[in-house]
Amino acid sequence: MLRRNRRDLSKSNAHFQKALTRLPLGVSSTFRYWGDDRTLYVHHGKGGRIWDIDDNCYVDYRLGYGPAILGYADDRVDAAAIKGMAVGGVFALSTERELTVAERIAKMVPGVDLVRFSNSGTEAVMAALRLARAYTGKDSYILIEGGYHGLFDAAMWMANMDQWDPASGVEPQKAPYSRGIPQTLKNLVHLTPMNDAQRLEDIFRKHHNDLAAMLIEPMMGNCCAISATTEFVQLARNLCDKYGVLLIIDEVKTGFRVAKGGIQSLHGVRPDICTFAKAMANGYPISAIGGREDVMRTFRPGGAAHGGTYTAHSVSLAAAEKCLEILDETLALATLAAYGEKLKAGIKHILDRRGVVHSFSGHSSMFGLFFAAVPPGNYRDWKRSDYSFYDKMARHLHDQGVICEPDSREPWFMCEAHDHSCLEDSLRAIEVAVDLTLEQLETEKKKASA
Ligand code: PMP
Fold it and tell me: Is 321 close to ligand 1, i.e. is its CB under 6 Å away?
């Protein structure tokens, strides 16, 4: 891989200008807009790599935010999906394969007795929260600061760190992620920092009469892979049991990735409800809500509503059957975790040689790279930290042929298809990107002091 300060993105840039005429920001998800001259249009992906329409090749550590756990266009899953296509799509009726896939999930995940399918992570978490409210007859819920659970109004509340003074002694204000979210929902949400036992206990003590659920992603797939301690997850379990509140573990990113049984199996804590999506079907759109039998049977007429025209589509279901079979019965997860270890060791070597202080968070299958000696323990730590090295390095990495999220909160994702050549290309690119970042910082420093 050659050192190049800029890729040729002329076709992507020209397409961006055309796309703007019909698509807001030229894209179909606001997170895919990376600037007028850096927004990428993918030609295709295969294994651990993608190619843009300018024919630039990248080793990809975003993997569509996690779904391509085996690698893009996996022949085994795609063959199954093609067979699923012959079944006919959707019928507003059920097929036998729903039970086969539900059996597999229940076998793999400790907290799952029964399963309902949906199409996306957002839909699954939305249904999980409704289920918890229907079961408990209560409305409010706890979220962890910095967490992301999808694009539905109830989940889109954050602690407003931009306006918060850590020395003030008061808690940050609750703020919606976006305009268009009704302020009237605000009072139903209780936000708390990860790993703050005292605050969590206070919220339960004060608000348990109104609480339906605590929603937690114990390894935050959208916030540096910040991880809960087992003690904190256990405390959440105990408080939920004590006060009759349901524990929802959102495994949309960690499910079928950090372990066959997800993050809940690593902590040894059984949620009442859990949600899955990304790694279930190697990128085909499907998600699942799983949980305790008596809770899940609340999905019934007169209980919690759930359904959807495209739910358990025959293509996605067949892909899920094959993908989960591979994850359950082969060494795929061990392979990709071992790759993650090698990548981290290579990054560490490069950064150590240049004296760049750093640390890793999360799991070797999805890790955060952090430019401080200790990774963040909660969102407030991340917000207080200096992430400018990462922001600069990410742009250079894209130019050098490695795709990571430009935002340092998104972890790097590994897939089974990342191989030795991906590793070699990545480390070569990372070395160049780190040097370019250091040069850039040096130039900025000189300019500032001139
Ligand atoms: N929960 C978590 C933990 C997620 O990471 C995401 C997506 N990044 C979602 C829910 C929403 O999933 P989707 O984008 O499939 O709607």
Answer: no
